[in-house]
């Protein structure tokens, strides 16, 4: 990975989070939480009151405030840009909305070749509010790095083809198996949109990017290799030249970790289903790992949280680079104080 010093201050470049991503020695294990900004925080619920989810993503001052809330509260080592994976799709004019308690819902699912024409390229002007918000954020964040993110082609396709959230992805997978050419063209279109969206975030000042392939664990490795990996690799290749760490995460991906690393990630995210030492064996050398505390443990007591955090840290002891995180996002009913305590425990237990 070539370092690009032009885009970020030295103090940010030398933060524990970015050092761990680069597999350099760190003063303490850095920690942040997927979905750290959002429903678990009362201050978030307050500023979001009466504002629909997608609209909240298009207001730079509000995005800045929401992104900063967990940094202030939990003393985490990185901020993640507040948005949603469907924002770039909305920005190119697709009819979709986020329904409270349901998730992203698409008016007219993408099912045919003619439907692909609705997926036009994304330009920076389509998401000028992102550039503006990241400009505000990097000024406020000081040396705390900002992570930009996007949904990976498979996970975006799962919403677009199904028309909404799904447990089985039957329509998406049927297209993948039954019409591989249409599927490949769909994922390739989504790769271009995703790459353009990540570039906007990096050029505005994001110090790292995470590609969420949350639902790709539904696939067998051979199908991932053939039908998904080329599109994800295209996204990673498109942003390789910036030199910012590229993180890749999905749920239930124990059998896919090696391939997800090979798609072009510098850091591979791991859920709680396999320990990090086993994940490292599967991923192989040259990659940092991120994870993998089970978010439901936060519903127990302090001693249990510390004991389970210790297990994660022990399994990570031999890794070259470790970013402490949950194995998936913060759950809505989580007590925010439990997160603050977990971040503090990781910092104290790993201080060198
Ligand atoms: O905290 C909150 O959930 C409130 C705001 C919100 C987000 N997305 C923020 C978000 C809401 C209501 C959504 C809708 C949405 N989009 C859902 C949840 C549906 C519900 O009500 O339970 C889902 C599942 C999506 C689709 C989506 N968005 C996925 C699959 C991902 C990838 C991360 C994951 O959870 O697997 C996202 C990213 C996302 N949505 C982030 C945020 C702040 C960014 C990443 C992060 O903070 O880690």
From TrEMBL:
Gene Ontology terms for molecular function: uroporphyrinogen decarboxylase activity
Subcellular location(s) of the protein: Cytoplasm
EC code(s) of this entry: 4.1.1.37
InterPro entries (UniProt xref): UROD/MetE-like_sf (IPR038071), Uroporphyrinogen_deCO2ase_HemE (IPR006361), Uroporphyrinogen_deCOase (IPR000257)
Pathway info: Porphyrin-containing compound metabolism; protoporphyrin-IX biosynthesis; coproporphyrinogen-III from 5-aminolevulinate: step 4/4
A single cellular component GO annotation: cytosol
Major enzyme class: lyase
Segments forming domain Uroporphyrinogen decarboxylase (URO-D): 30-39, 147-163
Binding site for substrate: 35-39, 84, 159, 214, 328
Family, similarity comment: Belongs to the uroporphyrinogen decarboxylase family.
Known partners and oligomeric status: Homodimer.
Protein name: Uroporphyrinogen decarboxylase
Species lineage: Bacteria, Bacillati, Actinomycetota, Actinomycetes, Kitasatosporales
